Amino acid sequence: MSSTEGDAAALIAGMGQRARMAARLLARAGTSDKAAALRSAAAAICEDASAILVANAEDLRRSDALPAAMRDRLALDPGRLEAVAAAVEAVSELPDLVGRVIDRTERPNGLVLERVRVPIGVVGIVYESRPNVTADAGALCLMAGNAAILRGGSEATGSNRAIHAAFARGIERAGLPPDAVQLVPTADRAAVGAMLRADGVLDLVIPRGGKGLVARVREEARVPVLAHLDGNNHVYVHASADPDMAERVVLNAKMRRTGVCGAMETLLIDRDYPHCAALVAALRHAGCVVKGDPLESPLDGLVEPATAADWDTEYLDAICAVALVDGPDAAMAHIARHGSGHTDAIVAADAAAAERFLAEVDSAIVLWNASTQFADGGEFGLGAEIGIATCRLHARGPVALEGLTTYKWVGRGAGQVRG
Amino acid sequence: MSSTEGDAAALIAGMGQRARMAARLLARAGTSDKAAALRSAAAAICEDASAILVANAEDLRRSDALPAAMRDRLALDPGRLEAVAAAVEAVSELPDLVGRVIDRTERPNGLVLERVRVPIGVVGIVYESRPNVTADAGALCLMAGNAAILRGGSEATGSNRAIHAAFARGIERAGLPPDAVQLVPTADRAAVGAMLRADGVLDLVIPRGGKGLVARVREEARVPVLAHLDGNNHVYVHASADPDMAERVVLNAKMRRTGVCGAMETLLIDRDYPHCAALVAALRHAGCVVKGDPLESPLDGLVEPATAADWDTEYLDAICAVALVDGPDAAMAHIARHGSGHTDAIVAADAAAAERFLAEVDSAIVLWNASTQFADGGEFGLGAEIGIATCRLHARGPVALEGLTTYKWVGRGAGQVRG
Question: Cα(B209)–Cα(B375) distance, rounded to whole angstroms?
């Protein structure tokens, strides 16, 4: 371990110890206390608006070299900052799951067993660019009774610090420990490694970032991870699809916002679908570059040649790959091979074909006759989201409060012993 | 990577590929098909009884040098083998959770979302000694719709192969793919490393073994792990405890079976509890060595001196540590510091003290007035268990069919697009 790594490990261990103390208090905090703390944090963010916007302007000034999309994600203005505070308030109104009884059983010997929702404990969040995550993630963790250790991107250091200072002051003013939500003070990349290796200190790490971060998490993580990867999402247009619906869903799935993880990246069309050329033409007309096999007659003149890599590419841009397939089995085989298990949709009038797709496609979200862009905690009625999990355990798809809790078994007896 | 490691990685990758194909078929198999396959597997185990017992005798012959307790775990006889087959049959009668709707919501736009239970996929099980795990784990994984890759201990190689051959023949005879339950054919330790690093091949690894295996999993695992650690379990006797109940529960928790993970390892007694000496004397009378601080007057003459290490020791033997504590806060602080998050119990007549203990002790299982030896899937009414999870995510405590499933979101629409 280098001295930098040792410093980072010591930093995270110290933060983790304070977080553990705070988590014990938070686990026992009542719903109204947690909600009041979040309202106070939202108010503090509003109070500090000028300071936060100044810090953000300074971050933007330092980030001249970043791509425009990244600068846009980083930028705050009074309206965006108001939305940050409003999101924290909204989390305070979500139903508190901690202490809820999931199920209950009385054993023949009279022992009564309940499974009860409890917080996970200490949660680490590693994220990039968007400074609003500092407030969003802190609020969701706190409402679920968890302490949070946040590590934002170096490009947003000033913005994150200013938002975090307000947030922590707000919760402290409401009587909850400010260590409940801590921000890693250094932009040093060694801190991320220390978080990923902090087995026993952090109970969970949620990475939110690009492929570089995801690869690092895969390689280095010793703590459980709730992976939030990008989505290589498919829309499969079945031969029975209504052409108007297919066009509406496909255009929305690809073009509503091209940079979100729920965007369609590959369009699969049944070879028997009679409106293939019109559908592809509509995508082109909407400004989308379409890649495929120009030798397929309905695509001739409409597509740029696709390479093998296109089927595995998340463009996050106004580009999509299109393939003609021979029915549902071929479509599902394509998705099994190239999909990332995020969100995949079928457009079909044939209910049997659709139900097969819903049952057999093994992604976190499978949709019938709806746009993949619905992949979002708010759209799913969860009130918020800390990410969309593409791993298979604990939580899948949009993760909000429930995914930030776990359970324990509580047994009440009258002196029972085991025979 | 050494050539051995490369061979092991290739072996696991190949087995994983066949397991993935089998898992796709299993995920769609009906309850009756899975149950019939397990009944057929149980019958095949009975048919092969002589061959399995011969292989087991050979394993025992090779294992002369092992400790008696390990040889006992390894040994089969006709009665034990009948129990192995009966356990497989019992799993076939458990309720099938795959396809169950966990919850359902209709969004204002008419999109109907359900969370539906699905299998996890391909599950690896790494275990030691007990050859019955080959059948138990295979049965539970299959009933939950998962393919299993089993890697048993080298000392049980022959027994595991013989049981697995019968099991696989049984499920194949019933029309399910034999690759649904595969046994790693080599006793080479590199295979365990390859399983732990098989990100994308295995969806989950469940280790069942001693501290050496657990340490290796912590260091090497790149796949999600459902950790099944031993339990450093506590019974806390509150000042209000009924002395007869306290003695009954404590003796059962420690002495019913000393080698199980639910056994009490440390006894905490309120300094104000009037029957401390009698309780410790009862433990000694039952044949338990008690370690504590001989300078504490109620323990004087009853205990051997404890060292700091005793509070963190899982004896799995007729030995226990005892500490006097100043009330619930001190008891809970001791458990927070030294416990392993497995099973902890309070004996108390005072309901307020007991409820605080149940709420604040952060272990997978917390019990009031009941023995820690109830920590078992069968005793909890789950019908079986694949282990007791001491990790915090996905599943905690006894894990049976539900912990071997996950969920996906299924949305049905009428052409909805996102605004």
Answer: 17
